[in-house]
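Researcher: For the record, we're logging two predictions in this thread. I'll number them. Prediction 1 follows.
Model: Prediction 1, sequence and structure:
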Amino acid sequence: MLVLKPNCECCDCDLPPDSGVAMICSYECTFCKHCVDNVLENVCPNCGGGFTLRPVRPANAYRPGVSLKYQPASEVRVNTGYSRETLSDFAQAIKAIAPDKR
């Protein structure tokens, strides 16, 4: 099941479960849209993949047992261990390659 991390791993801004600006890679690394566009340039600093909007998990159980009530978002904050300079250098090296070709 998708882990809904509570923050951007770059700038540490809050990304609640209903956020419309939470972006994830295929490994569920989580960043805000601002950092993906302006710092990471659509390059995940962990795997090198691209990003997509994180789905919103419904707050209400429209099916039995399926909602934030039953599968809550994580409360564990995650932050990248890389400096902004390292993130930028990594993105610059592969951003010209389309995510589906990396």
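Researcher: Logged. Prediction 2.
Model: Prediction 2, sequence and structure:
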Amino acid sequence: MTGTETFKLAMPPAARRTPGNRRSLRQSIRDSLVMAYRSVLKMRRTPEQFFDVTLQPIVFTLMFTYLFGGAISGNVLSYLPVIIPGILVQTVLTTSSSTGVQLREDMDKGVFNRFRTLPIARIAPLAGALLADTVRFAIAAVLTLIMGYIMGYRPNLGGIVAGGLLVMFSA
């Protein structure tokens, strides 16, 4: 017998083989939540990501409303229903671009190679990043809506929830 024939005899049939990284749904969700927590911690420690989530919605809402509000709509209050949804979309798009950059940095640094050696679900690093982005989008949306409310924006609650969900899950 040659070495390859020994290998073929030693391997079990395909029906009895199971992948070594098989995780249950509960374990996959738990792994994804751990990866989301890792991404949120990275956001807290990276100043530019923290700026994207907290300061950018506030600064842009104030700046664009008071610079262009009187010129475009005549007064600030009539411009708020136009600018607040625009700021929400702008913030989500800017924040979502940082997700791709983070994932690429993790790949370049070899973090994903280390994740492959861990006993975690294969989808957990990507799902965790997406969950963390949802948290970041929610923080940015709430801050934008609070700023708009302080400035006089009074939409109905159903519109806020529908618009927020549409913006968060469309990016």
